[in-house]
Amino acid sequence: MTDMLAIQDEIVAEFSSFDNWADRYEYMIELGKSLPLIDPKYKVDNNLIKGCQSNVWLHSETNDGKLIFTADSDAILTKGIIAILIRVFSNQDPDSIMEAKTDFIDKIGLKNHLSPIRANGLLSMIKELKMYAVKSKTRSN
Amino acid sequence: MTDMLAIQDEIVAEFSSFDNWADRYEYMIELGKSLPLIDPKYKVDNNLIKGCQSNVWLHSETNDGKLIFTADSDAILTKGIIAILIRVFSNQDPDSIMEAKTDFIDKIGLKNHLSPIRANGLLSMIKELKMYAVKSKTRSN
Amino acid sequence: MLDINTIRKDFPILDQKVNGQKLIYFDNAATSQTPNQVVDSIVDYYKRTNSNIHRGNHKLSIQATTAYEDVRKKLHKYFNSRLPQEIIFTSGTTQSINIITLGYTDLLTSKDEVIVSEMEHHSNIVPVQMLCERTGAKLNVIPMDNQGNLILKEFDKFISEKTKLVFVSHVSNALGTVNPISYIINKSHEVGAKVLIDGAQGASHFEIDFQKLDIDYYTVSAHKMCGPTGTGILYGKEELLNKLSPWHGGGEMIDEVSFEKTTYGELPHKFEPGTPNIAGVIAFGAAIEYMDNIGLDNIQAHEDELLKYCTQELKEIEGLKIYGEAKNKIAVISFNVEGIHHYDLGSLLDQFGVAVRIGHHCAQPVMNYFKIPGTVRISFSFYNTKEEIDLMIKALKRAITMLQ
Amino acid sequence: MLDINTIRKDFPILDQKVNGQKLIYFDNAATSQTPNQVVDSIVDYYKRTNSNIHRGNHKLSIQATTAYEDVRKKLHKYFNSRLPQEIIFTSGTTQSINIITLGYTDLLTSKDEVIVSEMEHHSNIVPVQMLCERTGAKLNVIPMDNQGNLILKEFDKFISEKTKLVFVSHVSNALGTVNPISYIINKSHEVGAKVLIDGAQGASHFEIDFQKLDIDYYTVSAHKMCGPTGTGILYGKEELLNKLSPWHGGGEMIDEVSFEKTTYGELPHKFEPGTPNIAGVIAFGAAIEYMDNIGLDNIQAHEDELLKYCTQELKEIEGLKIYGEAKNKIAVISFNVEGIHHYDLGSLLDQFGVAVRIGHHCAQPVMNYFKIPGTVRISFSFYNTKEEIDLMIKALKRAITMLQ
Ligand SMILES: Cc1ncc(COP(=O)(O)O)c(C=O)c1O
Ligand SMILES: Cc1ncc(COP(=O)(O)O)c(C=O)c1O
Prior knowledge:
The complex is a heterotetramer, with 2 copies of chain A (141 residues) and 2 copies of chain C (404 residues). Chain A has one domain (4-140): Sufe protein. Chain: A (Alpha-Beta Complex). A two-stranded antiparallel ribbon of chain A has the order 1-2. With 141 residues, chain A is mainly alpha-helical. Chain A has helices spanning 4-16, 21-33, 76-89, 94-99, 104-107, 116-140; strands at residues 56-63, 66-73. Chain A is built from 6 helices and 2 strands; from the N terminus they run H-H-E-E-H-H-H-H. Chain C has 13 helices and 17 strands. Chain C has helices at 4-8, 36-49, 59-78, 93-103, 126-135, 152-158, 181-190, 238-243, 278-294, 296-315, 342-351, 364-370, 386-403, and strands at 17-18, 21-22, 24-25, 87-90, 113-117, 138-142, 163-169, 194-198, 217-221, 232-236, 254-256, 263-264, 320-323, 332-337, 354-355, 357-359, 375-379. Chains in contact: A-C, A-D, B-C, B-D, C-D. Chains C and D meet through helix 2, helix 3, helix 4, helix 5 and helix 9 of C and helix 2, helix 3, helix 4, helix 5 and helix 9 of D. One pyridoxal-5'-phosphate (PLP) sits between chains D (92-94, 121, 123-124, 169, 173, 198, 200-201, 221, 362) and C (251, 274-275).
């Protein structure tokens, strides 16, 4: 488990190395393709996140006190966004997830490329990730 | 009975002699005061003309085949307008009234001083005057 | 203190002649004038941003959506609502009130009662009458006294567990009376009734804090507060609006549509079907900013001064009677002169360049109360001056002389 | 022939860069752009005329009222209605449709039937569903085929003496299909049913003659035909509108108001409560004039050419599927590319400066028919060019390469 802030800095550094939008987008698409895919049996309505313009399914499992996230979406750019989030949030303990700051999103200029609706979608995803952490804590208490 | 067109020309001439609005309005007010007033017993809802911003009552009687109009209003400028109309339309035979042109109204610049609602009121008055003529003809046939 | 000369530069419309005379615009309660800043925001929108909002995914659409939603946030802060989505954009006060009266159709029965005041604008009477007709609910009318105050002890008699809704204006457009809305709201809440405050004449004159006043519903028209025509807001508490059914269907207000089952979206979208007045809303934002910069305190102080001064001057005219002399009153003076019809007076004032409103001011019950067909109404805004009042008084005196 | 270069000078918004790229605006079905002439009319209104209308008696108010009513007359002539008062100003198509569906609440029972098409915009579905829910009337849905044509023999089966109302769009905003409204109107009239034509996508593209087509109700949004946001019209035959109750109450729409009895005014006022979007209506008039000067024949010819050219170019792209291939179709192309989500495509096109709409286009039943979540939609206006299509095709090809 790497420290969440360190991962965030890493991502910000990666994105700042691109000097045009096409490269940034191609990288997002690449990330999207690398997303740890959700087991098809969890791709159910119950795991759908509301507020996204494309469908986003999110699933979590606990492994050794840490939360492992898998996800999928029908849009590749959305997958890229989730891949970034999962890189930060997955394999962390619930407390860290609950307290995690997310200002790295502003730093990589993602919001510039998101419509308000999609920005809402992004917020919904983060909320959902944190909700899983809350739920997992309640369960283990 | 003077010819209706002659009366209209007369009115146009009178109004064109004023070179400022205040004189024109004062003349209208004067005309308003000279309006042949309706007998109070005819000042009933039935004789109210719709579409005017102030109340206008109109009554007609037949005398020797000619229509005699009397009227009243609670606003003096409106009375002035009716006075002008009555000067043209009263004491004429129904056929002349029905066929009368009313372009003298444009010529005296009255419409310039009327809001669209009041212009509607003016049209309503003329319509009413003509309706009396129609009715009187139907009755006498 | 306001620097009126500087302010007036923002309103080129005021600087013109009508009928050969300097325009004196005293018809602000009907619609206020629009400063350059607001007009510029419209031009800017159409020349740089124009695009349909919400469902769009391209740059212009994103910009337009952001600008539109920013105005919602601005109004939410300006009026201190608890949540931005409690601000619903409508085409104006009239539409706002109708959204509420339509929405309550399912919630009232013939056992319920509704209260309205005698002083209301038709927009706050007719929809309420329609609602009562649809549901059989009983309509109680708070009467007023001859100063133009609501008679609160009559209101106290009406208010009961049966009362479900109360409709009262913040300020009467015909008389200028500022109504005791806190009293009415508190009394109503004691029995569980909800209150709609018609704020068409309120928001332009003083600060309003929705949460502090515990307001259930409030309505505003942008065109009465330096904004454009065709937009306004309905404010409602979230929990109340959530319970209300939308009676207008269309695009944007739904979650999902199919012929089997359609589900409605969340606030504020539920009550904003179809393409809204996007340019209008953005310009409304500019208007709020403009008024906020001037400062509502300054506005109120200046308008009060005009009101006092003008009232005093008018009272010196023989035969002139003012309708509405409530202690708590603003920026509106309705009057008649003995023996002269309001219509004649208005017409002559217009010839003198003075724009006033005449007639029943969409408040016929008020006219019926005073047994008059109408009044001449002067109404001020912050850009008006004492000099304008002096000119108006002079014109009025000449008009009276001509007409008597 | 249109001189597009000259025309484009009227639309400064088209001459800008987004995301560092030349803007290509292909989202005209959502909202059209607004020429300088229309924007100027708004500025002129606020700087010279702004005033509340109808009840006013002073110069500004008279000018504003005249300008507003002149637009009504202009639209009456433009669309050839029998009477000016058959043109009701609303805030747009969605509001227009809701006025009708609310108005029919008293006129339908559970024995009646209503017909709608599968191809409609949510604004022409949801209010109709609400009406049927309120009244218990049965809703029949005309299905479509996979080319995007309404299946008329299914319509023929539905239409009967029980049918009271039919709701069909002139042009589908999702597919571009021009519907056979004459056929539908004639068949409906044979059984005494009335037809509402949702003209949101019609009036901007071709000439419409209300009387010749014997149209009962027609709706228009100004913002889709070079006009401003927040206004539009409801057209209805006088005798039909006279029978319809208003469901929105307020100022201006009444004859007399008292707590004993309120009577409604005549057309068009009955359906225009409250202060309307005065500036918007006046600008709508300027838009009609603008389009009329260009000429709808010219517009249609040019747009047809763009449609044909673009369709041809798109068809050469592997895996690209166009939804909506009706013979009679205009200015709209919906498509998807195999294996790529419309959302990804739209986002990349935006980066290339191409503004298109993605999603369900407020026509979820159409998406359900094709079993897709949405499409990319290109839509043209007369100011678009073949060069823009070429640039878009290039961008689209690059986007596809990036995404595959
Ligand atoms: C066919 C159709 N009907 C209705 C509407 C709704 O129009 P408005 O949003 O202007 O009310 C639209 C606009 O998207 C449309 O395309
Ligand atoms: C007190 C009051 N209520 C309601 C209204 C109606 O507002 P609008 O015409 O903007 O809908 C007005 C406007 O005259 C008003 O003064």
